Amino acid sequence: MRIATFNINGIKARLPRLIEWLEETRPSVACLQEIKTQDEGFPADDFAKIGYEAIWHGQKGFNGVAILADGVKPVETQRGLSGDDSDEQARYLEADVNGVRVASIYLPNGNPQPGPKFDYKLAWMERLRVHAKTLWDAEIPTALIGDYNVIPEDKDVWSPAAMANDALMQPASRNAYFAMLSDGWTDAVNTLNPRGGVWTFWDYQAGAWQRDHGFRIDHLLLSPELADRMTAVGVDKEYRGREKSSDHTPVWAEFAD
């Protein structure tokens, strides 16, 4: 079973690339972020043509998450996070697929910091941690995956100095991320790539892709029940270099049945 995450950065603009990736790599489950479309504009029929069922949580113009599954309908278990009744941003979607609980996460960026956007980011991360504890207690094989907008360590960025003032690298952001790891969640990519140097995002500006100036912000956090079954992890880096690509690239992990 292969579970993947892909911040698609606009599902309508990148649909050919997304279909291409799905057909070429055939993940069992694909979690998408930044679909940037309202619910009625989601291209479910295009995925059905290649055998994928989908659920989605859209929002006009920005945010938005989705879960695709190969040959089976994801069974939705939660939409959005509790803890803030005023939060209407489409950033969290959770479902059961073939005995695994999967959440597609688009965590707030937090820039500029300090300020209200950074405060929202940290509050959102705390709400995620509270909900993650309920999933942990249920002892269901669980993958909390997506764009966390956190660079966990200096080894996860091409230049720590270049990103030092960014919300993605602030001590508070990192501490919130590591708080989840201290609760027992496994960072799949880091586990099998402990030396770092693995990027999942390259900005469109300043020739970042051509110069390999990237960083790792797309993560797969696994419960013990799923981490014990992990057999491989990968980053589909080549898709970042294709025409009209997302600025992120797909990240995946494989699990024994």
UniProtKB/TrEMBL annotation:
Q: Where is the Endonuclease/exonuclease/phosphatase domain?
A: 4-248
List keywords of the entry alphabetically. Answer: Hydrolase, Magnesium, Manganese, Metal-binding
Q: What Gene Ontology biological process does one annotation of this record name?
A: DNA repair
Residue numbers annotated as active site: Y106, D147 (proton donor/acceptor), H248 (proton acceptor)
Gene3D superfamilies per record: Endonuclease/exonuclease/phosphatase
UniProt xrefs under SUPFAM superfamilies: DNase I-like (SSF56219)
Family annotation (NCBIfam families): exoDNase_III (TIGR00195), xth (TIGR00633)
User: What is the name of the protein in this document?
Assistant: Exodeoxyribonuclease III
